[in-house]
Each structure stands twice: as C-alpha cells, then as structure tokens.
Amino acid sequence: MINTDSNKQINMDNLAPDIRVQTFSEVATGYTPQQAKAEAMRCLNCKNAPCVQGCPVAVKIPEFIEAIKNDDNQKAREIIEQTNLLGDICGRVCPQERQCQSKCVRGIKGDSIAIGRLERFAFDVTAPNSTAPDSTADFTTPEPDAKGEHATNPQLNTKKVAIVGSGPAGLSCAATLAQAGIKVDVYEALHDFGGVLLYGIPNFRLPKNIVANFIDNLKSKGVRLYNNVVVGKTIKLSKIYTDYDATFIGAGAGLPRFQGIPGEQLSGVYSANEFLTRINLMHANRFPTFDTPVLIGDNVAIIGGGNVAMDAARCAIRSGAKHVTILYRRTEAEMPARAEEIEHAKEEGIEFKLLVNPLQIIGDDNGFVKSIELLKMQLGEPDSSGRRAPEPIPNSNFSLDVQTVVVAIGQTPNPLIRRQADHEQIPLNFNTKGCIVANEDDFETSIDNVYAGGDIVTGAATIILAMGAGRKAALSMIDKFKTHKQG
Q1: CATH 3.20.20.70 fits 259-409, yes or no
Q2: Which of 200, 211, 255, 315 is the Cys-Cys partner for 194 at CB 3.0 to 4.6 Å?
Q3: Are 193 and 227 in contact (CB under 8 A)?
C-alpha cells in the first residue's frame, strides 16, 4: 500500500539483504508508476525552485516532476535531458540529499521530495527495454540535410574534438558535442569504456547495461571511441591537441592515496581503486572463470568512510568474505558516505568500527596480511573541513585479525598527463595538488582550445559535478566554434 502522508517520502523497494549479498544484481528496484506519481504529487512546484539552485547542472526539477504528475514520462525525460543526458545514472548514484533535495521546501516540515528516485524513474520507464508506450532509445541529435550537414549548426560539421577519458565528464562532453553535429574521438586508457562508472561503481548500485547503452548511443551518433590508449604513453598529448580543433581532458582522479603506515606493501593490501577495478571490470570475484584474481580472506577490513569504502565492503561480502569491517576514525555522523549506502551496508551484515585509526598492518612469515593494529580515537575541535578532528587516545592500541585490507581514503589525479606535459614542455598549468587549472566559466585551460573538467580539475568529487563540467566545456567549445574562425 502506498503511503498517503504528504510529509513522508514514498519508499523505494529493495532486494532483501539475504538475497542481495549473494548477487551483484541491483539492490534498489525503482519506483512503480503508481509510486512515482504519488511521490510527484507531494511536490509543491515552488515558484523560486530552490531545488534547482541545489542541482549542479540546474535540472528543471519542478517541471519534470509536473510531467510525471501528468503521466507524461517522456516529457519528464526530455526536460531532464535539456541539462543532463545521464539522468538514469545520476538518479542512482548522485548525493541528492546533499544537493537538490537539501533545498527542498518539503524538507522543512517532513521528508524532501525524492528527486533522485523520480529522475531515475523518468529514464527507466522510457528506456529502450522498457514496456512503457512512450519508450525512446536515445537522446536527440539534429537530422542532417541532403549534404550531410546539420542544418541548425552547419558551421560545426567540420569541427573535430578529442576527448581524453571516457568517464562521466568525457561522456557528457562527447554527447553534448555529438548533439551539435561535431565529430568526436574519445581516447580511453582501459579496455572498456565508462571510466569510474564502469570500474568504480558496483553493478548493485549502477547496472553496467545502463552505461553500455549510453556508449552504444554515442557510437550511433558517430562518436568514435578508442580503447587501450594511454595519453602520455601510447600517444603524445601534444599530438592529440594539435590534430583537433579542440581537446577535452577528463582523465579523472585515478591515483589512490595510502596512509603511509607500515605493512601497506603486504600481499592482501589493496587500494580501493584496484580492488573495485578487479571485481567490477575484470570479474575477479568469478576467478578462475575470469583470469584476474583477487585475494579475499574470511575477514576483510576496509579503511575509510565514503561511498567508495561502502562499495568495497559490499563487494567483499558478495565475493566470499565471511566478515567485513569498516574502519573509520570519526563517528558515523561525520561519514561522507550517503546515508542510504551506510544503511544498505549495515543491512548486509557489515560491521562498523568507529573512532579507530590504523597504525600498522601486520604480516605473516610469507608476507601476507594477518592482522591490523588500531588506535582508538576521540573527537576534538572541528578541522579545516568543518568536521571535528579525531584525536588519539593514548595506550588504547588493539589488533584485529584480518587477511585482506582495502584502503579507501581518496584518490588524486594520475600524474601521467602532468609528466607528459613537463616532458614535452607543454604550457599546461597544474595546481599544487596535481590538478589541471581550468577557468571556472568555460573550463578552458592555459592552452587555447584545450579544456579540462571533472576530477582531474577538482580532485575526487561527485559524478554530477564531473558530468556538469563536461557539458559546460562542450557548450563553451560550441560557442567558440560559432563565433571564432578556427585554423
């Protein structure tokens, strides 16, 4: 029965915990049409739309929700696609509770509108495999005229853009450019396309067919994608940006951070990037059916408290671990992970050891992990991030028996592009954190017609911010192509 209390969100159904820990199938099953309409009816359609102000890409939220109220799901999708072509992805993985939903007027006296769930619904019911009568296969590209040119922007047909990286920033940039009729080549270092959407986010949160469908759609629009191309190794960065009218660098933040404690070199210690890539992209949980192994002991420790840590913990429990423990040096209130992901992890039997900090990882005589030494912490005054800083409690050391340790404390941009720029004396500016410096308004870098966006500019951030950067960079290119004669 659907809840009729206007102050309460309509719940979304999930697979039962005892079932989902045995499979990588998607946990959240999505709204039914009846649930979506009931949730949409809660929207007050505010004139000043504070929710839109909280959206990094300014989706017209009240308008698409109004379309769902009127049973016009196709229109709802089209409204979202005006600013966000990957609504089915954002509806699943974006932290709406900290963005658009945090501004919702409904949230003052009750639950905010479930904007993310409604966004996902609008895309799911209009997807190619949907049984909905208004099903659509893709986003719209202007039809070419008799000469093969796009009548709306004929001056763009001769332009070529290179995109480095096929993650959310690169895909969003490619799609926006393709819509305008611009030729696009995407260069990806891995053997498959999608970046962090593919290797970083597990199937139980983001089914891989959604990413694959978007990639296929790009190909159908003439976008060419090249895999196994490491810009800075297999091809020079200078060749990329001199062979194209413009270049977008969206290579992400793929360099993992470690704590620098003793024992991190032991067998059984992984960065979250490696651990998740082995499982999500290379199917290590199904070794030896697939060639890539991963060492998962009976007891697994995950260091960190963000969404990546939750993903790693939940992957470990699905890959054969008997007991998985999250180790975090603050309390749950300070955890950066989404509340939904924390709740799901707890439902799946994952233990949370809070206010602890790893001191060292201890190995056996063969160089494999056998335990981790921890120190109890307490919270002091807020640090520069606004969170209360953890302080050690003297003489509170204790050990935890584990065979696998996954470090999920963040990542930084891969230094390969910076090294290539230095080697070739390319005047591409970087900040002290190794991020490319780009203009906030148009995302152009220190090199004319070279743009950058996503985690390689901001450091590790959200999917929606990366997608927004890719779209805005593409729009900047398009505007420049229209108003300036290119060589």
Answers
A1: no
A2: 211
A3: yes
Query: pTM of the entire structure?
Result: 0.91
- 158 contacts 246 by C-beta, under 8 angstroms: no
List Cβ<8 Å contacts ≥24 apart for 126-131. Answer: 126/73, 126/74, 126/77, 127/88, 127/213, 128/213
Ordered by start, the domain boundaries in the chain are 17-124, 154-254+412-483, 259-409
Report the candidate in 425, 428, 450 with the shortest Cα–Cα distance to residue 437: 428
CATH code for the structural domain at 154-254+412-483: 3.50.50.60
Fold agreement between 17-124 and 154-254+412-483: no
Q: What is the pLDDT along the chain (487 residues), one digit of tens a residue?
A: 566 678 899 999 999 999 999 999 999 999 999 999 999 999 999 989 999 999 999 999 999 999 999 999 999 999 999 999 999 999 999 999 999 999 999 999 999 999 999 999 999 999 764 433 333 334 443 344 434 443 446 668 899 999 999 999 999 999 999 999 999 999 999 999 999 999 999 999 999 999 999 999 999 999 999 999 999 889 999 999 899 999 999 999 989 999 999 999 999 999 999 999 999 999 998 888 999 999 999 999 999 999 999 999 999 999 999 999 999 999 999 999 999 999 999 999 999 999 999 999 999 999 999 999 999 999 998 878 788 889 999 999 999 999 999 999 999 998 889 999 999 999 999 999 999 999 999 999 999 999 999 999 999 889 999 999 999 999 999 999 988 754 4
